[in-house]
Amino acid sequence: MEQLAPREPKLAIAFGSSWFDQQALLDGMRSVLGALPMAGGSTAGEITPEGPRSHSCAVLLLASEEAACSIGAGESAQSHPHEAGQQAAYAAAREFPSQQRTAFLLFGDGLVSGSTDMIRGLQEGLGTSFLMAGGLTGDDLRFSRTYQYANGRAMSGGISGLLLGGGLKVGVGLEHGFAPISRPHRITRARANVLFELDRLPASSVYEEYFGADLTAQMRQERFTRQAVAFPLGMQQPDGVSGWLLRNVVAFEPDGSLRCNADVPEGASLQLMMSSPQSAMEAAVVAARQAVTSLNRVGCAIVFASAARRVLLGSQNAALEIARIREALGSSVPLIGGYTYGECATTAAATMADRTPVHTESVLVVAFGK
Predict the structure, then answer these.
(1) pLDDT tier, 238 (very low <50, low <70, confident <90, very high otherwise)
(2) What residues form DSSP beta bridges with 219?
(3) Kind and range of the H or E element at 287?
(4) Which of 39, 59, 331, 342 could bond to 136 as cystine, CB 3.0-4.6 Å?
(5) Residue 172: beta bridge partners?
(6) Cα dist. 370→21, 172, 287, 289 in Å?
(7) Which of residues 220 and 208 earns the better pLDDT score?
(8) pLDDT above 50 (res 336)
């Protein structure tokens, strides 16, 4: 507020550590911001212009006479993900004060198994070709409970977001920098985010083939292991769309199945993936440049970076990655963000049915401007 004075903010975006009492955190923000429209969520680490942070809160205020916005939220996404997405879309559209809608900035629960259905519900409410971007909220790698912010309320198991428009322009860029290293496998049995069989064998065999039985057994005992982070699963996008959708394995189940961080469709081709710190950081720079390509002037930016990516890079390289994103955007551009359990963005070449897939181990840059 002090930095903006005497201009009045139009909206607020907030990222908060899950270690805080979430409602008390929002009450503190509201004591300063009043009834200002605000959306956001909990993270697995916060991003500021100075780099990655932990156990902190980051707030971005946007002041623009031309911008229009409204808040939408949906609940019960674990049991009814599609309906939760629709609820958020309809609520935001109902309150939107302008005819010109530009984008929806979303914050979905990162522990909901039906995240893809949740986003499809949003699409049905706002349009399958409408720009949507955002992240799945985190909880500092505890995988227990994440939070979504909608004005002065912190909720779990839902989705919230900002419908943006008026004269505000939004640009997005998303990259990961991973490449396949194993032979292709066919997903022969899967349900939601659980991968049961590859080539009619237990899904964990893909790791046994590459790492051996002993190391795979060790990975089963640990949660979110470094090996699983360093070697995610990659699926070629459907219908000839270029690029790969990545999936992190968050648990090795006793029956040999793999619980992933997002949906895995039967019939898809899957391979083990690998990257290097250099390739990962180069991809982040590409994402930043993609985000500003369509903008004449960049006002501010939001970064949704995978929590797994921060683990993979380590503290020094994670800080360097944010520094390189800032350099690509312009060092004077205000920037905040959070480490998430999934990144969601429209892909220009995708089919209408899959225009906003859930990614992981990726960097999503959302830029606002004119």
Answers:
(1) low
(2) none
(3) helix 277-292
(4) 342
(5) 366
(6) 37, 14, 19, 16
(7) 208
(8) yes
CA dihedral of residues 15, 21, 26, 30 (deg, nearest 10): -140
Q: Which residues, in sequence order, are CB contacts of 309 under 8 Å at separation 6+? A: 176, 280, 318, 339, 361, 362, 363
Measured between alpha carbons, how far is 110 from 135 in angstroms, rounded to an integer?
Answer: 8
Question: Could you tell me the pLDDT band of residue 262, with boundaries at 50, 70 and 90?
Answer: confident
Residues 44, 340 contacting (CB under 8 angstroms): yes
Whether the upstream peptide bond of residue 6 has omega within 30° of 0, thus cis, is: yes
Record the tokens describing residue 345, joined without a space: 């963005």
Report the first-to-last Cα separation within the chain, whole angstroms: 22
Backbone angles phi, psi at 193, to 5 degrees: -100, 10
Q: What's the rounded Cα separation, in Å, for the pair 138 and 141?
A: 7
Range 26-53 average pLDDT: 96
Placement of tokens 């769309």 in the chain: 241
| Unique residue bearing structure tokens 């501010």 | 300
Q: Which of 171, 169, 141, 162 is nearest to 14 (CA)?
A: 162
What type of residue sits at position 142? R
